[in-house]
């Protein structure tokens, strides 16, 4: 055995495979565990931060709630107490920034209530430009206290304010603790209206879309800012470019302030967020008692933010001119961040695609020349034997199978994977929601068994076989080169994806291809040296063509001269065959002889081919499953989620293909046994529980009559007097959820739905989900709440009863193509205009800034919806809108006017003030009986979330 190499037998190879996978998977999952909070926290205080978190997340506090004001006051008190101690710290309670901006679907008018802090850097050059922005939002959704989304982000920023105030840095730090992110990133837009927004050129945004765990750097603009997240600055980096690719392709149905800072302010920056446990996201379980990791999770974000933030503020390399270069990045075992420019990967792939095959073909050519020379010399000493036609056919069939079984194995494996995905999707599609790693185990096991067993299967040997061609070593070489060819195809496709769409998450293909290329080169070199040093009589004389084939099926006398079979008896372990008593060869369990002058590099080949891609696939699989398995409740495709898990299972096994001949079948048998057990469990188990609850979405709509003045849509025979106020015509409760459970298992548990006609259909608002509507009944009519009686907007009518006055609106035609809307809601900050018959091309809100925020102008062909947000309660919105008159006939504008409410009694418990005087903080909370009913009667395996900005939307038609 050359160089003391381990034996290439089933026992050794199987042991190496088992040890490798056990170590890799153990390290991947072990490093995913949150470490303990250190005693020396380096200037941060986890106890203070955790106390702040308790104050900030006592109850839901959306922008349109009174609890939101309480949270804001707490933050202001906290940062003012810090600023009072340091003259280089300034605090701004931004109650002036407002503006208008639009997306392709809707327009927004918003009045900000951000809390801004500026810490002057020591370098004067960075006081006006070149600073760093730190951002998190303090509002939550209406159905969640917001511990991870984004209470932990805010408490981290509060810690960083004090830290950077004490430990001054070179660049100026701007903190935007903003309000209104949950309502489509409005707080970040409002920040762009403030003069301080022009100071920073980079940012660190803190977010959450889960229930805790390790935060991940899931988006970054460039290679430069990513240098702030290297191990030198962040001790335990967790990052992967694949998540950024998913955002870019629209696979992730959410957004963060990152997009506003990059698109609206041309900043470079980083998105750091929690991502595990999405079933608790935007629900009552996004609360401190249910957080995964508790203080450990908060500390993980604090430590990463401090390290990255300090680097951005002090390290000029994070602001260099190359900061616009996209990058590939991923972490290894949370101990090192691998980072390199995407363009470098692209150039390397192109060169490797060209030069890699050329070098291997050169080696194969040398190998073929040496083999041919030895065969010619050997053939001079041995007579040719003619085989029968039938013998040649069977020999050729075996040869064809040996060259094709790798591809047959790939096809069978993919087919079995597709069948398993289909079985899961049809039989128990949501089991991956709560048991993703059981599903991954089943898919990986199926890949392992089908691929390795197919490749290791061989047709029965014959005495006419060339032992060199049928040996495991030769077949291993064939599989190596076929695997390399497959990786070359994948590499070509990934290079095209990089060039066309800047997809960086395909780096695994490159590393797998490099490993296979090295293994193939070693295999060729090993074969060259093996053939070169064999004695002439040792080399089989059978050539690859049938014309030069020889047969040794006839018995030889004992005194026969050395022939093709003679060296097999003398050194049978080298060829893998022995000679039986009849002179025929059979398969041997031995391996290369200790005396054979060959080089055995299989272990080095294994190291090149298996560990790196398995490690990368395991990291990606761990992140991918945790991030996507519970998005099924959001309407994501079941097939896509299961196919992603199937792909990970396949990639975990594919590198083993060249070593399949030496993997003991007992491993596969054990895995098949476990597959049956876990597979049956996965198919028969109920997929949801209190730890992984099914998420459904709630909204209630109230149709009014008499709330809109000057509307031709009001029936003249309705008998409604404007002086008596509006009446409620209909109240509809809507739930959105997965079709398998919503109407059959969830709605029947609600008393208000008993005996009601429920209409269910595919939702247009939440794609992939079903919407079920029913008339709620008088007992479920919501109440807007109020601090006092509110007079109508024209100030001439009598007071409107509190139980029906959700809002008042008037419309006035000001020209053939313009109109003015006046809207006043009760106990709300949010109203809307929907335009049904035609879009508007411009709008302006009185009291707001003129014009649209660049580059968020009104798109063609216009807007079908306008969202109005005020920092004041009970504000009167006066809005001018313009539309096109295509026919020149003075077309009218029709649509709906609405106001929103996001409070309900149980979520407002503990909010001070039940009086009538708003100057003393008194108010009456809104009431949503239908939501309270849901919270009380839903099964323990179901949890409710908000469907839109408002839990309740009251509306009425208008025409002007």
TrEMBL record:
Pfam families: Peptidase_M28, PFF1_C, PFF1_TM. It comes from the Eukaryota. It is an enzyme of class 3 (hydrolase). Residues 540-552 have a biased composition (Low complexity). Residues 694-953 form the Vacuolar membrane protease C-terminal domain. It comes from Leucocoprinus leucothites. One of its GO terms (cellular component) is vacuolar membrane. GO terms for biological process: proteolysis. Residues 114-301 form the Peptidase M28 domain. Residues 406-585 form the Vacuolar membrane protease transmembrane domain. Keywords: Glycoprotein, Hydrolase, Membrane, Metal-binding, Metalloprotease, Protease, Transmembrane, Transmembrane helix, Vacuole, Zinc. Signal peptide: none annotated. CDD domains: M28_Fxna_like (cd03875). The chain crosses the membrane at residues 12-30, 345-370, 406-425, 437-457, 478-498, 504-522, 601-620, 640-659, 666-688. This is Peptide hydrolase.
């Amino acid at each position: 055995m050359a160089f003391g190499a381990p034996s290439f037998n089933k026992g050794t190879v199987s042991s190496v495979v088992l040890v490798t996978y056990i170590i890799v998977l153990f390290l991947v999952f072990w490093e995913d565990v949150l470490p303990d909070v250190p005693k020396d926290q380096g200037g941060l205080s986890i106890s203070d931060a955790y106390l702040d978190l308790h104050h900030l997340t006592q109850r839901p506090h959306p922008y349109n709630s009174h609890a939101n004001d309480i949270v804001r006051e707490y933050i202001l008190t906290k940062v003012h107490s810090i600023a009072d101690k340091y003259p280089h710290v300034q605090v701004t309670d931004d109650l002036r920034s407002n503006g208008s901006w639009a997306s392709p679907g809707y327009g927004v008018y918003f009045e900000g209530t951000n809390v801004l802090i500026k810490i002057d850097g020591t370098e004067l050059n960075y006081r006006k430009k070149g600073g760093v922005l730190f951002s998190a939002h303090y509002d939550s959704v209406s159905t969640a206290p917001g511990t991870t989304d984004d209470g932990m982000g805010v408490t981290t920023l509060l810690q960083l304010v004090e830290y950077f105030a004490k430990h001054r840095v070179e660049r100026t730090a701007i903190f935007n603790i903003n309000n209104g992110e949950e309502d489509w990133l409005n707080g970040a837009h409002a920040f762009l209206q403030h003069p301080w927004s022009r100071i920073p050129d980079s940012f660190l945004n803190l977010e959450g879309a889960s229930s805790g765990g390790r935060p991940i750097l899931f988006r970054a603009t460039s290679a430069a800012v990513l240098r702030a997240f290297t191990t030198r600055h962040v001790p335990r980096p967790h990052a992967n470019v694949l998540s950024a690719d998913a955002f870019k392709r629209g696979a992730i149905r959410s957004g963060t302030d990152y997009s506003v800072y990059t698109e609206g302010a041309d900043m470079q920056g980083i998105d750091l967020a929690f991502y595990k446990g999405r079933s608790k996201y935007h629900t009552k379980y996004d609360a401190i008692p249910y957080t995964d990791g508790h203080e450990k999770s908060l500390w993980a974000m604090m430590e990463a933010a401090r390290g990255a933030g300090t680097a951005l503020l002090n390290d000029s390399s994070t602001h260099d001119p190359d900061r616009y270069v996209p990058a590939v990045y991923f972490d290894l075992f949370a101990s090192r961040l691998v980072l390199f420019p995407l363009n470098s990967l692209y150039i390397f792939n192109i060169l490797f695609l060209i030069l890699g095959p050329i070098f291997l073909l050169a080696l194969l050519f040398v190998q073929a020349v040496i083999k041919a020379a030895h065969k010619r010399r050997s053939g001079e000493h041995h007579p040719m034997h003619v085989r029968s036609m039938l013998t040649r056919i069977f020999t050729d069939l075996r040869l064809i199978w040996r060259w094709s079984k790798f591809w047959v194995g790939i096809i069978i494996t993919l087919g079995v994977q597709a069948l398993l995905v289909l079985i899961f999707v049809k039989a128990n599609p949501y089991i991956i929601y709560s048991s993703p790693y059981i599903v991954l185990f089943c898919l990986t096991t199926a890949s392992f068994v089908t691929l390795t067993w197919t490749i290791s299967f061989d047709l029965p040997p014959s005495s006419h076989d060339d032992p060199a061609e049928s040996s495991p070593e030769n077949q291993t070489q064939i599989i190596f080169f076929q695997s390399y060819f497959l990786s070359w195809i994948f590499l070509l496709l990934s290079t095209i994806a990089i060039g066309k769409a800047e997809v960086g998450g395909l780096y695994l293909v490159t590393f797998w291809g490099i490993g296979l290329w090295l293994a193939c080169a070693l295999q060729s070199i090993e074969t060259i040296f093996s053939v070169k040093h064999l004695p002439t009589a040792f080399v089989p004389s059978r050539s690859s063509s049938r014309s030069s084939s020889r047969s040794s099926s006839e018995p030889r006398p004992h005194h026969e001269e050395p022939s093709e079979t003679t060296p097999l008896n003398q050194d049978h372990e080298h060829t893998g065959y022995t000679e039986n008593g009849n002179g025929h060869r059979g398969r041997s369990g031995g391996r290369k002889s200790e005396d054979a002058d060959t080089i055995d590099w299989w272990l080095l080949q294994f190291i090149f081919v298996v560990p790196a891609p398995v490690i990368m696939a395991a990291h990606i699989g761990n992140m991918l499953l945790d991030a996507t398995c519970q998005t099924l409740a959001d309407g994501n495709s079941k097939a896509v989620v299961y196919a992603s898990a199937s792909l990970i299972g396949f990639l975990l096994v594919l590198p083993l293909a060249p070593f399949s001949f030496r993997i003991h079948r007992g491993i596969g048998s054990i895995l098949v046994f476990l597959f049956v057990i876990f597979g049956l469990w996965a198919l028969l188990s109920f997929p949801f529980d209190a730890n992984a609850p099914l998420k459904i979405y709630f909204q209630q709509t109230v149709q009014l009559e008499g709330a809109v003045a000057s509307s031709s849509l009001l029936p003249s025979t309705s008998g409604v007097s404007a002086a008596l106020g509006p009446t409620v015509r209909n109240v509809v409760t809507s739930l959105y959820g997965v079709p398998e459970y919503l109407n059959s298992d969830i709605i029947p548990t609600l008393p208000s739905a008993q005996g009601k006609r429920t209409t269910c259909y595919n939702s247009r608002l939440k794609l992939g989900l079903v919407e079920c509507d029913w008339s709620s009944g008088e007992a479920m009519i919501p109440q807007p709440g109020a601090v006092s009686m509110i007079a109508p907007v024209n100030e001439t009518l009598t007071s409107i009863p509190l139980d029906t006055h959700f809002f008042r609106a008037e419309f006035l035609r000001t020209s053939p193509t313009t109109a003015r809307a006046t809207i006043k809601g009760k106990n709300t900050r949010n109203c809307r205009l929907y335009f049904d018959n035609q879009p508007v091309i411009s709008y302006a809100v009185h009291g707001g800034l003129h014009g649209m925020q660049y580059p968020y102008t009104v798109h063609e062909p216009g807007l079908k919806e306008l969202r109005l947000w005020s920092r004041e309660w009970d504000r009167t919105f006066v809005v001018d809108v313009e539309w096109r008159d295509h026919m020149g006939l003075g077309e009218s504008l029709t649509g709906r006017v609405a106001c929103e409410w996001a409070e309900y009694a149980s979520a407002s418990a503990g909010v001070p003030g039940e009086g009538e005087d708003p100057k003393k903080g008194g108010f009456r909370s809104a009431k949503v009986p239908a939501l309270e009913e849901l919270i009380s009667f839903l099964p323990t395996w179901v949890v409710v979330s908000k469907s839109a900005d408002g839990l309740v939307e009251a509306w009425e038609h208008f025409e002007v």
